[in-house]
Amino acid sequence: xxxxxxxxxxxxxxxxxxxxxxxxxxxxxxxxxxxxxxxxxxxxxxxxxxxxxxxxxxxxxxxxxxxxxxxxxxxxxxxxxxxxxxxxxxxxxxxxxxxxxxxxxxxxxxxxxxxxxxxxxxxxxxxxxxxxxxxxxxxxxxxxxxxxxxxxxxxxxxxxxxxxxxxxxxxxx
Length: 173
Known about the structure:
Main location: endoplasmic reticulum
CATH superfamily of the domain at 36-151: Umud Fragment, subunit A
EC number: 3.4.21.89
CATH topology of the domain at 36-151: Umud Fragment, subunit A
Keywords: Endoplasmic reticulum, Hydrolase, Membrane, Protease, Signal-anchor, Transmembrane, Transmembrane helix
Largest sheet: 7 strands, antiparallel
Oligomer: single chain
Shape: elongated
Number of strands: 7
């Protein structure tokens, strides 16, 4: 009986299981990107600017089909040049040019003023290219785990270490 050979086979199997879990998660994510048309099909609301519609920690499901026109009242997730984190706000005004180009203005439901102060300097309107996606559904407070991990990085690393150790050390029956 080769004890070390058995341990090596068991470790290889566990490493392969871990690699399969990670690659499956990546494939699901890429599949969601293709199906939804959004570079980020799931986002977490990080502030209270959209209350009462969405609260901090709500998980939003997005789509971004380019042939679907943006309308006033829709909730969009957009990126602004110079900011890393996308913003979730409502479209309050549409400006359509004669050539068919559409520009729009956003505002958080819980904010007193529109978002022109958030846009890059000199920008007064957003364009379709700025949109990451449109909110199509949500799960309340499910994203609080993400917020906690961002607010407390040590917790995030501890959780990842525990999950990794569990997958690697779990014995199959």
